Amino acid sequence: xAETDTHNVVQDLKIENLEERxxxxxxxxxxxxxxxxxxQQSMTEINTTLNLLLKMGRPALLLxxxxxxxxxxxxxxxxx
Length: 80
What we know:
By secondary structure, this protein is an all-alpha fold. It has helices spanning 2-56, 58-70.
């Protein structure tokens, strides 16, 4: 009888640990989903801005190249 009690205690501890890990993983998944939504919103804003600049033509592209160069992005391969 003592063996089954010990076995039950061990099983209960394993179940508790698994439940804690599930809760932690669910929390991490929620945070990842929030981050992904924020990233998608930022990408949409960037895409909208770039499309607007492309519609404006060459002056806008020159402005974009200047801004990118000022923030340290190499624009030497950019054709304007």
